[in-house]
Amino acid sequence: MKKILILFISLGFGLVSSAQQDPQYTQFMFNKVVLNPGYAGSQEVPCISCLHRSQWVGIDGAPNTQTASFHTPLFRKRVGFGLSLMHDGIGPTDSWYMSMAYAYRIQMKNKRVLSFGMQGSVRRYSVNWDETEATHEGDFYIPTGSATKMLPNFGAGVYYYTPKFYAGLSVPYFFNGDLSFHEDFFITDFSREEVHAFFMAGGVIRINHRLKAKPALLAKYVPNAPFDLDLHGSLIFYDRLWAGLTYRLGGSTQVGFGESIDLVLQFQFTDAIKIGLAYDFTLSELKRYDGGTFELMAEYCFTPNRKRLTNPRYF
Questions:
Q1: May I ask the CATH class of domain 4-11+30-173+192-301?
Q2: Cα(159)–Cα(113) distance, rounded to whole angstroms?
Q3: In the chain, where are the structural domains located?
Q4: What is the rounded CA–CA span in Å between residue 98 and residue 120?
């Protein structure tokens, strides 16, 4: 059964995809620039973040994802600029994404900001056919060796935030890139990139001077695929320690109580450095075969020495 994912992917090459394809993140609330170009520059200072995700540990060919991003405000904070590099491997497939984001930021009263973002990207997609297992030996439609193609794309997003609330809507990739490598004119079934739409929202509620609550959600929509929703709630202790849970509904779930329950822990070591850890407890049928999912995240923001953590950024 450890080959279950490889088998699924191999069968999927010949079909029109109807499932979520973009990588998912448990710590989505701290990885927004990858999902929404309108977020670029919203930390008010230059920030670098890195994330590693190993999904469904113990299953051969399970997804593993790495991201590195940089974003900063420019021109008196009227503009945001961002760069992202992402790697995503699933079974015999390997994808590298490089994206550049531009955001026009409208400063409003009471520290409210409305940001409109655009994104240009390119995806290097490759398949190592030697890692697949044919169900029928000698099928001449199954290639050997490896193949690679480049897929340019374009996306956009809008992001609104205040010191206590945020909301954003984005479509990072508008075009349905062809992921197949068929050269035969008579083959009409093929795999392609599907448009993904994301809606995110969250806030911070002050309980007392030591404790705050921070709810958040991420809704994901893909045409002809199950609706996917992440609901998160965390507590912030002394503006330093973040501890919370996420409930993920949708995706591969057909029966049961959801896809996963996720534990999220983060620590603000200094005004500039934040470290995060997440672990997903699988609730779907895959729980019989995998060892869960884990994420590691690190963020560094170039905070001026004179600026203390008296008004920390929660979003």
A1: mainly beta
A2: 8
A3: 4-11+30-173+192-301
A4: 9
